């Protein structure tokens, strides 16, 4: 696959093409339309150039709920920086050679490839996933492994970012992956602003478990929600699981079980994720030096922040600031 960046040339809008086909899921289509297609005039960024395209102009969506008239065609895929592959009602339903060839051509010129739910099967059918790490809906993991043994499948996560190929496990995880893409393109502050606009909780990290046997509440229980809110207001302090448990008036083991059941991760992993996200926001929106960012986010020292930030984000704090800050003074760190 070509290593040319999928980012548009300076002054151009990032073009996103959503490819749909017979049986595509309207919920996931709606997520892509809402997050990439709706204008965001309240944000001081150049938003996406979004188009819905298909091999045929009219597409019946899943279970014949309605027919979608697409303004774009597969010719639009050839000009897109990000291409969202079509999903299908089940893995047995494929798409024609025209769609697969359009995806192959997009990959060959270095476009970023995205799939939601069973869209992973479409990318695999096009021969674009061998050697990559991906995920798909837990219901179809055994079938995917049987059909595509050359692809590394992670069956228990929400989404996987494997560089040029990004895959989401299911319908709700498509929201998390879309916000992850917005964060990668525009920074944490913009992604959080979009989350607030959607009245959607801060997006979950991709490594979070996609399926929990015990039913998950739509929001954490009151005691857990309160301690999480308190922790977010005290990220500059050396918080421990024992301190969080004490605040929630429960034992550390009970707090751990509640976090796993209601949030899908451990208290420490959640806390670390929030500290990094807070650091990203401060680097994007303030001129604070890295030592002060480290203090305000609970990492203590600049070297500690650099270590954890690079491990999670892949770049140093100052490199991240240079790439994402709008206004303010870029300070060394």
TrEMBL record:
Residues covered by the HTH araC/xylS-type domain: 225-323
Alphabetical UniProt keywords: DNA-binding, Transcription, Transcription regulation
GO molecular function per UniProt: DNA-binding transcription factor activity; sequence-specific DNA binding
Record-linked Pfam families: DJ-1_PfpI (PF01965), HTH_18 (PF12833)
Protein name, per record: Helix-turn-helix domain-containing protein
């Amino acid at each position: 696959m070509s290593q040319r960046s999928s980012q548009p040339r300076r002054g151009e809008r990032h073009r996103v093409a959503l490819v749909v086909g017979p049986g595509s899921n309207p919920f996931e289509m709606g997520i892509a339309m809402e997050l990439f297609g709706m204008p965001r005039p309240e944000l001081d960024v150049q938003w996406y150039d979004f188009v819905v395209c298909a091999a045929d102009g009219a597409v019946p969506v899943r279970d014949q709920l309605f027919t979608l008239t697409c303004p774009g065609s597969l010719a639009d895929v050839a000009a897109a920086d990000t291409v969202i592959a079509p999903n299908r009602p089940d893995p047995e339903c494929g798409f024609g050679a025209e769609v697969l060839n359009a995806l192959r051509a997009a990959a060959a010129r270095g476009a970023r490839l995205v799939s939601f739910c069973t869209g992973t099967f479409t990318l695999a059918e096009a021969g674009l996933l061998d050697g990559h790490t991906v995920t798909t809906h837990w219901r179809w993991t055994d079938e995917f492994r049987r059909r595509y043994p050359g692809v590394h499948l992670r069956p228990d996560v929400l989404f996987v970012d494997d560089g040029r190929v990004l895959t989401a496990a299911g319908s709700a995880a498509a929201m998390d992956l879309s916000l992850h893409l917005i964060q990668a393109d525009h920074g944490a502050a913009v992604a959080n602003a979009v989350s607030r606009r959607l009245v959607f909780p801060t997006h979950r990290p991709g490594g979070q478990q996609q399926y929990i046997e015990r039913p998950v509440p739509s929001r954490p229980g009151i005691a857990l929600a309160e301690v999480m809110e308190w922790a977010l207001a005290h990220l500059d302090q050396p918080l421990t699981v024992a301190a969080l448990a004490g605040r929630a008036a429960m034992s550390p083991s009970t707090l751990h079980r509640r976090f796993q059941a209601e949030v899908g991760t451990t208290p420490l992993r959640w806390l670390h994720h929030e500290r990094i996200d807070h650091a990203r926001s401060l680097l994007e929106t303030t001129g604070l030096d890295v030592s002060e960012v480290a203090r305000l986010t609970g990492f203590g020292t600049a070297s500690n922040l650099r270590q954890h930030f690079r491990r999670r984000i892949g770049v140093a704090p100052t490199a991240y600031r240079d790439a994402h800050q709008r206004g303010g003074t870029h300070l060394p760190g």
